[in-house]
């Protein structure tokens, strides 16, 4: 539960600024139509620089809303190297942490669940997790759980 709260706070910090209800999901110019299914493919696809497109907040019983570079005046880049994620906001490095790509079943002891995840390694005993959908041009990091959190959409630079 603590990791879920950390992920929720992480998503809120990254997408801080004005919140808009005016952005329709259909106007966002990036879809992960054919995401990687294999771990080795996802590991190679995730590498490089990604431009933040939006963070979508979806809550049961209320209207979804999106934060974007336009309504937050924020340009955010995610830079994935072999084992480190750096996040640059308006030219300033605001976050740097180790990560790995794995299967959801590896952290939940349900080996049949081969959904891909990014594991953010906060320390030797603490991790955060985002569900990972990545193809050649788009990446979606799903941070919502039980109707709380923000899902981050990125486009390859």
Tell me what the structure shows.
It is built from 4 helices and 9 strands. It is α+β, with helices and mostly antiparallel strands and 157 residues long. Strands 1-3-4-5-6-7-8-9 form an 8-stranded antiparallel β-barrel.
Mean pLDDT: 81
Run of helices and strands: HHEEHEEEHEEEE
Shape: globular
The end-to-end distance, rounded to whole angstroms, is 33 Å
Supply the helix-strand structural class.
alpha+beta
Strand share of the residues? 35-45%
Number of strands: 9
Question: What is this structure, in a nutshell?
Answer:
This protein has 157 residues and is of the alpha+beta class.
Layout of helices and strands:
Blueprint: H1 2-14, H2 39-45, E1 48-57, E2 65-67, H3 69-72, E3 76-80, E4 84-89, E5 92-103, H4 104-108, E6 116-121, E7 127-134, E8 138-142, E9 150-156
Antiparallel strand pairs: 1-2, 1-3, 1-9, 3-4, 4-5, 5-6, 6-7, 7-8, 8-9
């Amino acid at each position: 539960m603590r990791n879920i709260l950390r992920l929720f706070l992480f998503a809120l910090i990254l997408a801080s600024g004005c919140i808009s209800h005016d952005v329709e999901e259909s106007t966002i110019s990036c879809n992960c139509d054919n995401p990687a299914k294999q771990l080795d493919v996802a590991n190679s696809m995730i590498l490089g620089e990604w431009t933040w497109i939006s963070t979508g907040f979806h809550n049961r019983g209320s209207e979804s809303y999106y934060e974007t570079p336009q309504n937050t005046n924020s340009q955010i880049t995610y830079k994935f190297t072999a084992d480190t994620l750096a996040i640059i906001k308006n030219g300033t490095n605001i976050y740097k942490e180790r990560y790995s790509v794995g299967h959801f079943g590896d952290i939940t002891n349900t080996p049949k669940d081969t959904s891909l995840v990014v594991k953010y390694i906060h320390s030797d005993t603490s991790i955060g997790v985002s569900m990972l959908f990545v193809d050649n041009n788009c990446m979606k990091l799903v941070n919502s759980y039980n109707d709380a959190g923000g899902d981050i959409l990125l486009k390859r630079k």
